[in-house]
Structure formats: C-alpha cells, structure tokens
Amino acid sequence: MASLSLSLLSSTLIFGYGVSGNKLSFNSSSIGFGSIIKQRRIRLSALRASSVVFRGLDADDFRHPLDKQNTLILRAIPGLNEVGKALLGSMTEQIMLLENIGTSVLVSKHQLSELHQLMTEAAEILDIEAPDLYIRQSPVPNAYTLAISGKKPFVVVHTSLVELLTRKELQAVLAHELGHLKCDHGVWLTFANILMLGAYTVPGLGGFIAQSLEENLFRWFRAAELTCDRAALLVAQDPKVVISVLMKLAGGCPSMADQLNVDAFLEQARSYDIASSSPVGWYIRNAQTRQLSHPLPVLRAREIDEWSKSRDYTSLLRRATQMNDLPRSNIDLKLVEISNSLK
C-alpha cells in the first residue's frame, strides 16, 4: 500500500497478527487428525470462500489513467531508466537485503504462516508470483516494496500496521504492494521509496535525484498509488475494506478501530471536493498535495469508491473464476488422503 501522506514508506500502513502452530501427534491426549484437518481447512478457506481469481490478468486491465499518463512523462526523460538501473545496482540491493534480513522477520510457511497465506492467496488472485515478505518492528505504521536490478522483490510491513488492521484489510495492503509489481513499477518505485526512506546516503543517489526529478517521481508515484488501490480492491472484492484501510491510515488507532465509519469517511471525501472547488480552494489543494508521495487518503477513498461502481471493474469480476472452484492445492489433497486413511 505503498502508502499515503501517510506514505507507503513514510506513511504506508499495514497489518499483522500472531500465529500459533499445530503439531500432529499420536498422543491420546492431543487433538485428533480429524480436528486438525478441519481447523486447517477452516483457516485456509476462510478468505477463499467468496473470492475470485483473475486468470490472464494484465496490468492495463486495472491501471489508472493518471498512472498511464505519468508513466509516459517519466519514460520521456532521456536515460532515466538506464541510469536508475545503474545506480540501483548490486550494492544498493545488497544494502537493502542485508538490512531486512538482519532487522526483520522473513515470513514463510514455517514463520507467521497465516500471514504467508494472506500473501500467497493475494498473489494467486492477481495472477502474479508472490514476493518475499518481511515483518519489521516499528511504531510507525508503514509498508513498502523494493524491486532492484531485476532480482526477486520484497515487501516490508511494520508491526504497528499489523496491529491497526483486520486480516482482510491487511491482505488488501499486501495486494496493493503486489499491484506495484504486477504493473512493473520497478525502478521508479524503488527510487520513490528510497526518497521516502531518506536514503540519500546511498552512493550516487543524492546527486542524481534533483528537485525537478523528485517532483516528477512523486507525481508519478501518486498516480501509481491509485492503480495499486485498484489491485487491493480486486483482491478484497469489497470497496469498504480498502476504504477502511485508508481511513485508518488517516486517523485510526487499535483502541478506536471499531468506532470508525466508512460511509462517514466517504462523506468527508465529498466535503473535501466541495471545499476545494473554488479558485482559492483549488490553489490550496494543489499546494497541499504537490510535495506528497501519496494522494490524500480522502481522495483515494473517493477514487476507489467510484471505480468499484464502474463498468471496468464489473467487467473484470464477470470474467473472473471462483477460487473455490479451482483444483485443490497439494496440501489440501494430502490432508484429505490422511483423513481417508484414518476412516
């Protein structure tokens, strides 16, 4: 979700949760195979029951028009992509990789497995390979994606974001990050995230990223965020889930999360449009947003609400496949074999 003003880095938010492992045992006092299999299926299918997947999904199927427009502007800057790849080379990649391995927890089937399931399911829905996912201890709610030199990208989520969101909301954030990868935002995404992280000390970057280029990058990033909010909706398949994430990023905290109202937040977004419609309001709005890496939360909420009602979104849903109609995974088949053998 590569983030907000609250940005994906400076203010991107995400969610998480604790995980407990199940241990198979033949001890008569331990839980039986049947119960374990049942619990496993409930956990794996809780989100899958009503989900659909998008086979053959192309990034342009959901890319926001402003993303297309600003991508063309960046591509018109001579040599930007080549220079970016040269600067974000093996050294930068190694710095970022060691930083995450050394200070975060790598999510996997054997480490925070439920969070791993959320990521793999979101990737399946968007028809993309799941990246590595790290959880980092931080009081600043945030999430971001780095993809350097064509290597396997990774997503980082802060623990405070995990505490703020529900699991469905957290999966929407993961889907947002996957949207960046699906749309091949690549080098420019990494540039923008490094800017938000304040990593000007990376050799060569400080002198290369001039103010005008920074403004162009952030203008593009704001547009790219709108695209990735759409990716979040394709996975959540409920606009209120995505809007709730944006609302919590704007002013949520765990102790009051159950009192927040999505409809009231959308009404707030409409009031912002009215207040900024005058010439003075238009000027203030542009001055307020020009230096932001992410669109304002209320504007993102309005955008995703409108797209959820659009013909394009409805058309995508029509061509999707029910997830529970897909072939069983290997692990599901294995559990069925074990269950049958005990009957």
From TrEMBL:
Single GO MF annotation: metalloendopeptidase activity
Required co-factors: Zn(2+)
Any one Pfam family match given in the protein's UniProt record, by short name: Peptidase_M48
Keywords from the named record: Hydrolase, Metal-binding, Metalloprotease, Protease, Signal, Zinc
GO terms of biological process kind: proteolysis
Signal peptide: 1-21
Alphabetical list of InterPro entries matching this protein: Peptidase_M48
Cofactor note: Binds 1 zinc ion per subunit.
Membership in a protein family: Belongs to the peptidase M48 family.
PANTHER family: CAAX PRENYL PROTEASE 1
Protein name in the entry: Peptidase_M48 domain-containing protein
Lineage, top ranks: Eukaryota, Viridiplantae, Streptophyta, Embryophyta, Tracheophyta
